[in-house]
Amino acid sequence: MKLFTKIFMICTIIGLISCTEKDAQPHEDATLFLRHKGANMPIWVKGNRQPNKIVLFVHGGPGDCAMCYRYYLKDLEDDLMMAYWDQRVAGASSGKVDPATLRYAQFGEDMELVVNLLKKQYPNAQVYLLAHSFGVELAWQYLTTGDNQKQVAGAMMVNGMFSYYRWLYQVREWALKRAKEKGNKEAEDFLTANPVTPQNTGTVNWEGIYRWMHKLDGNPVSLYSDKKYVINYAFASPNTALAQFTHSKAYGYYGDIESRTFEKGNLLQNVRIPVGLFWGKKDGIVPFEIGLESKDLLKNTQVSQVTFEQSWHEPFITETAEFASAVRAFVGQK
C-alpha cells in the first residue's frame, strides 16, 4: 500500500504541474464557420488565448487562402490568438456562391460578420486586422463602412492599395524606372505608350503593365521554392490545390470592372483606430510609394510604419522573424 500511495502522490504532483503549465498558456484550437449568402467560410482560431487578443488574417488573392500562410505566421500563436479566415470562393470555403456576390460591398459585409462572430465567441478579446494585398482592399472597405472600425482595436496593412488609380499609376512608374535602369527598350516603349490617368483607368491595358512589372522582377519570390512550405501546403493545410487553382476563374468581373472602381483615398481621413503600414521595400506589385501615400491620407489617427528592406510583396516570407516581431509590437505583445 505504501508503494501505491507514493506512486499516486507522484502522479498527482505531475498532474498538478501539467495543469499549471497548461493554464499558464492556454491554447485555443477551434474551427468556426460563417455561412452567408451561399458561402460556407471557415475560420480557424489557434494560439494563446490568455492575452485576449485575436489577430484576424485577411488573406490576399482574390481567391487565395489563409491557412496556407500559417506556415509563416504560426510563431505568433505562442503570444496571441490567430484567426485564419477563408473568404468566399477562396481556400477551403465551399457552398454554391453566385459570382454576383464577389463585390467589395459583400466582402466587407462578410468581414463584419466574421469579426462579430469572433467577438461573440471571445467576448473579452480585442480583435486586430492583419490584411495582405487584396485583403487590404477588403480591410479598407470594412473600416470605412458605418461604425465597423469601432469593432477592432487596430489594423495592420501589408503591401495593399487604397485606390486602383493610384496603385496602377505607381506600378507603371515602378516598372518604367526599372526598365530604364535595365536598358529594356521594349518595356520602356510599352510603358511610355501606356500612361495611367484618372480618366483612363477603365480602359488602360493594366495587364500589359502588370506583366512587365513582373518581368522586371517586381516580385521574384516564389512560395513554391521552399520545399518545406510545399510539403506543409500539401499535407498540413485544409486548402486543396484543386480548389486553389480554380478559384480565380470566378473573379472575371472583379478584374475587369469591380477593381477598377476601387477608391477609398478620401475616406481614410475618417479612420480613427491605430494603423500599421507594413511594406516590403522592393515590391513592384504594390510599390512602397502606395504605403507613403496611405500614411499621408491617414490624417486623424496613429500611424506606425515598418519597412522590410529585403522584401518584396510578402515580407512575412522573406523576413519572417522580423515580421512576427512587428505584429507583436503593434498589438502590444513584445
What tags apply to this protein structure?
8 strands, Rossmann fold, globular, alpha/beta, 334 residues, 2 domains, disordered N terminus
Shape: globular
What class do helices, strands and sheet pairing give?
alpha/beta
* Biggest sheet character: 8 strands, mixed
Distance between the termini: 51 Å
Order of neighbouring strands in the sheet with most strands:
1-2-4-3-5-6-7-8
Strand content: 15-25%
CATH architecture of the largest domain: 3-Layer(aba) Sandwich
How much is the average pLDDT?
A: 91
Brief summary of the model shown:
This is Alpha/beta hydrolase. With 334 residues, this protein is an alpha/beta fold.
What does this entry look like structurally?
The protein is α/β, with parallel strands linked by helices. The protein folds into two domains: 26-163 and 226-331, Alpha/Beta hydrolase fold, catalytic domain (Rossmann fold); 165-220, no CATH class. Helices cover 42% and strands 16% of the residues. The chain is built from 13 helices and eight strands. The chain has helices spanning 2-24, 70-73, 104-121, 134-143, 164-182, 185-193, 206-215, 227-235, 241-244, 252-258, 288-297, 315-318, 320-331; strands spanning 27-36, 39-48, 53-58, 81-85, 126-132, 154-158, 275-280, 303-308. It is globular and about 60 Å long. The protein starts with a helix and ends with a helix.
